[in-house]
Amino acid sequence: MQATTDDPGREATDGRIRRGDRTRREVLRVAVDVASVEGLDGLSIGRLATALGISKSGLIGHFGTKEELQLATIRAARAIFARSVIEPALRKPPGRAQVQALLDGWLEYSSDRRFPGGCFFARASHEHAARPGAVRDALAVVDEEWLGLLAESIRGAQAVGEVAADVDAAQLAYELDAYLDSANLRSLLGRPGVYEQAARAVRDRLDAAAGVPDVRRPS
Questions:
Q1: pLDDT tens-place string over residues 60-103
Q2: Which of 57, 88, 100, 211 is deepest in the core (most CB within 10 A)?
Q3: 80 in a domain, yes or no?
Q4: Distances (CA, A) of 102 to 63, 80, 81, 146, 164
Q5: Is 2 helix (H, G, I), strand (E, B) or coil?
Q6: Interior CA angle at 9 toward 8 and 10, to 5°?
Q7: Closest among 125, 164, 131, 127 to 145, alpha carbons compared
Q8: Residue 167 in 3-state DSSP?
Q9: Helix (H, G, I), strand (E, B) or coil at 150
Q10: Cβ contacts of 24 within 8 Å, gap of 6 or more
């Protein structure tokens, strides 16, 4: 017989599912912050269970293994990054303003410490880059997505004449991303003014790509 909305068994099941989803979200909220500072290897079932006041067995029931916890943490961090940086930028029409919004959004996401350790993916990628496996593969996909999106946005700017047609979009995306990574790392080392330096470097490089002359240099 088909369950109805008045079926107590169905309601109990739905309640367990909602509680489980809520617990999982709470675990990942803590996990992304811990991993941004201490790396994905800094995550442990015991530590998170203690921090959240739940049993180890309960947490294991949600994630199974440490690797599954790490992969879920990457997915959660990716969703936060998308909401913080990508979605606002893509609301702008294709052109230089969209490219600039992606880059400015990234610098703000890092400087505002959306994650306490700066860019989550910079920390995790340095940790796992030389360690083949599912975690590195997941991080590589996120990196490829970001650089691909940046290059695609640059091509959109080329299509409307705001970046020169002969510019290699993938190469320009690589160069611009290097400014972002440099600012993130040096900010963590305590060097002041690095986000302002990166923002200026980004503007100058986009000006050059658009063929705008640098008025600060003598002709």
A1: 778 888 899 999 999 999 999 999 999 999 999 999 999 999 99
A2: 100
A3: yes
A4: 33, 14, 11, 10, 19
A5: coil
A6: 90
A7: 125
A8: coil
A9: helix
A10: 62, 72
Q: What is the DSSP letter of 4?
A: -
93, amino acid identity: P
Domain contains 49: yes
What's the pTM?
Answer: 0.85
Residue 75 lies in a domain: yes
Phi, psi values for residue 118, rounded to 5°: 80, -145
Per-residue pLDDT reduced to its tens digit, 133-156: 999 999 999 999 999 999 999 999
Distance in angstroms (rounded) separating the CA atoms of residues 136 and 133: 6
Domain assignment present for residue 142? The answer is: yes
Euclidean distance between CA atoms 80 and 200, whole angstroms: 26
| Residue 108 CB-density burial (10 A; 0-12 exposed, 13-18 middle, 19+ buried) | middle
Q: How far apart are the C-alpha atoms of 195 and 191, rounded to whole Å?
A: 10
